[in-house]
């Protein structure tokens, strides 16, 4: 994998993680500001965000520590 595609994967993962965090954060902030209860769909969105952050961390670590593939032949 070339360096530019690694950079692209990291940039895409980081950007989407940031946008997702903002979206879920605004969801919770809006519920609190309107004095509405936080319901199951809100908690599900929060858990999905945590899951996505965990997957993104795995991508960051795998891209950071990946070695160039070597051929046996």
What is this structure, in a nutshell?
The protein has 73 residues and is mostly helical. It has 2 helices and no strands.
List keywords for this structure.
73 residues, mainly alpha, 2 helices, 78% helix, 0% strand
Explained architecture:
With 73 residues, the protein is mostly helical. It has two helices and no strands. The chain has helices at 3-33, 40-65. The longest helix is centred in the first third of the chain and has 31 residues, at 3-33.
Helix coverage percent: over 70%
Mean pLDDT: 86
The end-to-end span amounts to 19 Å
Helix/strand order, N-terminal first: HH
Gyration radius over CA: 18 Å
- Low-pLDDT ranges: none
**Which term fits the overall shape?**
elongated
DSSP summary: helix tally: 2
Main beta-sheet strand count, sense and barrel state: none
Which class do the helix and strand fractions yield?
A: mainly alpha
Number of strands: 0
- In terms of DSSP E residues, the strand content is under 5%
Topology:
Elements: H1 3-33, H2 40-65
